[in-house]
UniProtKB/TrEMBL annotation:
Keyword RNA-binding attributed: yes
HAMAP family: Ribosomal_bS20
Protein's name according to its UniProt entry: Small ribosomal subunit protein bS20
A Gene Ontology term for the protein's cellular component: cytosol
Keyword Protease among UniProt keywords: no
Domain of life: Bacteria
Pfam families: Ribosomal_S20p
Encoding gene per record: rpsT
Record function comment: Binds directly to 16S ribosomal RNA.
Stretch list, region Disordered: 1-28
Entry similarity comment: Belongs to the bacterial ribosomal protein bS20 family.
GO molecular function, one term: structural constituent of ribosome
Gene Ontology BP, a term: translation
Protein source organism: Massilia psychrophila
Keywords, comma-separated and alphabetical: Ribonucleoprotein, Ribosomal protein, RNA-binding, rRNA-binding
Amino acid sequence: MANTAQTRSSSSQAVKQNAHNSSQRSTLRTAIKAVRKAIQAGDKAAATTIFQASVSKIDSIADKKIIHKNKAARHKSRLAAALKALSA
């Protein structure tokens, strides 16, 4: 248990921040799944628009340092490759 007012405050801030970051990570996963689902359906036009929105969301979350920028780049690259394979 926190012994000082400062550590109590820090502890409650950490809980709030963890909840916010968890929500953001969930949004990220949902965006990635949406692209994969559109690619699975075979609709290139829909997949492209969803991909563009997802890239924006991925970059936003990486800029906030919720995920590492290299992880964001890896997700974007894999999704782009899957989208490209759909048209081939």
